[in-house]
Structure formats: structure tokens, C-alpha cells
Amino acid sequence: MNRLNTKTLPRSWVAVGISMLMATSAWAQEPAAAKAALRGNATAGEKIAQSGSAGGAAACATCHGAKGEGQAGFPALAGQHAGYLERQLTQLAAGARQSTVMAPMAKALSEQERADVAAYYSGLALPIKPVRGALPGKKDDDGAWLVERGRWADGIPACAQCHGPGGVGVGKDFPAIGHLPADYMQSQVDAWNKGQRDAGPLGLMGKVAKKLTADDVKAVAAYYQRLHNPGAAAAPAKP
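C-alpha cells predicted for Cytochrome c:
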């Protein structure tokens, strides 16, 4: 077969080839442009958080507090990673995470609005600090062992290994948990065990949840409370 002599190609063919290359480059950049368009706007997110959305989502502050500090039955949102918050809203809207209260709110938000709300809350101050407790020398505190050492005999890694010192969270995959009350922690463990919530990276939390007892959850929450408020007495557990 004779080698194609590019010098003899008509200029119109060359122009077509260049146009195709430029189009291919544009197609490759299109997803990136679309992703950039969904970058969260914290100012717009604050308006939704305080007043609700045009699509019918209620103001986030109604349940999660004026500054995302959380209240009974509703977790704190302030300072959580934007990627984590946006993914949870997306999963709630799609049904991958189930909640009779939050699913309708997430569905009423557009993709851009979910990104905006996530950007707003992630920009607020996280109310806990990255402090690490002393490694327990003997098993006299189940909460300390689970958080700082884990219970490897049952295949449970230390909470601090994924959620960071003091449970302040690590990136978009491991949220801050050091300020969550025991009842909310337990509700999420129950959700994982019932398949009502995505099991997380590598299915890790889904596996861990199956090995945690109600006493374990209470112990972890109580330990975090002592860690962040050493002078305060632990709040009594709800019946």
C-alpha cells in the first residue's frame, strides 16, 4: 500500500481535520465545564438555608439550627466537608439514602442548589477541634478504646483512623462525628443495618455498623463529649 502523501492533501481536507480535532477537544472539555458550573455559591446557599428554596424545600435552619449547629434529632451541618454534604443530599434525592423528612427536601433542590447549600455550611466553623485522647492502657473505657484503638477482635477499626483526631472528619468521605449525640449516631447505625443508607467507601461503615452494639454507640458519644468538654459532666442517656 502506498504511503499517504500529506503534502498532496487538498487544503479543504486539512481544514476539516483541524475542525474535527478542535471539536474533539471541546467535547473533552465539556464535562469539566459542566462540573465547574455546579461549583457551590455560599451566598445562594445561605439564602436557601435561612429561607428555603423556590422549589419548595424548607429552610434548613428550621431543623438544623440558625447556624447549622444542629438540635435534637437533627445533626450539626456547620463545618462539614462540602463534598460530603452535597453527596448526602444527592443520595437522599435519588433514594440511595432514605429519610422521610430529608428526602422530600433534597428532591426539591436542584443540583446547583444542593451544591450551594453544601458550600454555605462547609464555610461555617466546625464546633470541635482535632484533639486526640491518650491511648487507654487498660480496657476500663469502652468509648476510649473504640475511638482511639478500635476493637480489632471484632474487626472494628478505631474511629480516629477514618474520622480523624477528635472526630473532626477527613475529606469528603469521612464526616465529622465528634459532636454528634448518641441517639443520632444510633439512628444512622440502624439505617446502615437496614440498608437505608449507602455503606460508604469500600462498604466500610456498613460492615462496622453491623458489629456495633447500642452500648458501643453510647460509649463512643460519651467519650467524644468528655474529650471536647472535659469539664462538663456527661449528659444522661435518653430512655
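Residues 1-37, 233-239 have pLDDT under 50 and may be disordered.
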